[in-house]
Amino acid sequence: MNAPSFVADPAGNNPLPPLNPNGASINPKEYIEPGTDISVVLGFLLFGVGLLIGIVATTGILLLVFVIAWVAYYFNRKRAIAALKGSAVEVSEVQLPEIHECAVTIAGRLGMSSPPKVYILEANTINAAAVKLAGKKVLVLQDDMVDACLRSGNARTLTFIIGHEMAHHALGHTGILRSNLTKAFKKLSRLDEFSCDAVANALVADPKISARAIALLTVGPQLMSYVNFGSLMQQAQEVDLDKHSKKAERHLTHPLLLRRLSRFVG
Fold first, then answer.
1. Which helix or strand (DSSP H or E) is residue 145 part of?
2. d(Cα 224, Cα 152) in Å, to the nearest integer?
3. Residues 153/140, Cβ–Cβ less than 8 Å
4. Which residue in 250, 249, 251 sits closest to 259, CA to CA?
5. Does 180 reside within a domain?
6. CA 161 to CA 178: how far, in whole Å?
7. What is the pLDDT of residues 79-114, one digit of tens each?
8. Cβ contacts of residue 234 below 8 Å, gap of 6+?
9. Residue 98 included in any domain
10. Residue 117 DSSP SS3
11. 71 or 23: which carries more pLDDT confidence?
12. In terms of C-beta density within 10 A (0-12 exposed, 13-18 middle, 19 or more buried), how is residue 179 classed?
């Protein structure tokens, strides 16, 4: 079958700005946020006790529900990856190769045996995610996130974002049990976000890039050039010192953005 007429030169796409993902190897476990290990133990303990109580209270019905859910997940997992592949652009050596090289390089620096598949998905939010589909590691970058990073004034903000999501895989956050635990135990989820920010910062080796990436999530690319960065960093410090900040995020899966930004105030 002939290629569609609008594809005049499949190899003639414009290159992305340099993402510069190269650097020394990083042990992601060295950047785990303090308190994470005890939160994991506590989370699994509470989950186990709750499950046991539920099984006893429902005379085994809850256990049956879990078994059915697991079987449904097993048979639907290939359908899930097929749905993503049929709705998003799969990054490769010839499709957005700069992003592909960045992901491969970062995976290698983190000691991962193989890089996750990367997909660009159209959405109206600035976001990204690390997930496991059909037992395979996947990074999903929403198109607005990629575009925002490229228009932010420094394309290496995208390297930070990719590094952050890759860290979720490298630290084992995306396994089925661990990922469901963080959905139920939001404190652990917030600790994981801080851990992945720290890993991403080590990968880019420049706190200014890390700060810019977090700030981008706050104001978007349109206002980035107008923002007084010094004032924003001061605000971040004030937020982090405010005792009410941690209380405000108790029901959130992610720390307040300015609390994350405060980690990179130099």
1. helix 143-150
2. 6
3. no
4. 249
5. yes
6. 21
7. 777 888 899 999 999 999 999 999 999 999 999 999
8. none
9. yes
10. strand
11. 23
12. middle
6 alpha-carbon distance from chain centroid = 34
Cα–Cα distance between 247 and 1 in angstroms, integer?
A: 60
Secondary-structure percent of the chain, ordered helix, strand, coil, rounded to 5 = 60, 10, 35
Give the CA-trace dihedral at 102, 105, 107, 113, to 10 degrees.
140
CA angle 39, 42, 43 (to 5 degrees): 80
Half-sphere exposure of 176 (CA within 13 A, CB side): 10
Q: Is the pLDDT of residue 5 over 50?
A: no
* Residue 176 identity (one-letter amino acid): I
Q: Which residues have a Cβ under 8 Å from the Cβ of 18 and sit 6 or more positions away? A: 98, 155
* Residue of 139, 134, 137 whose CA lies nearest to 83: 134
The total number of structural domains that make up the chain: 1
Token pair of 262, please?
A: 């405060």
User: Lowest mean pLDDT: which of 49-58, 91-100, 103-112, 242-251?
Assistant: 49-58
Residue 233 domain flag:
no
The answer to whether position 9 is within a domain reads no
Give the count of beta carbons closer than 10 Å to the beta carbon of residue 155: 19
| Domain hosting residue 173, numbered range | 35-205
Q: Could you give the dihedral angle defined by the CA atoms of residues 220, 225, 199 and 97, in that order, rounded to the nearest 10 degrees?
A: 80
**pLDDT value, residue 73:** 65
**Rounded Cα–Cα distance for residues 221 and 144 (Å):** 10
Which amino acid is it at 68?
Answer: I
| Cα R_g (the chain), whole angstroms | 20
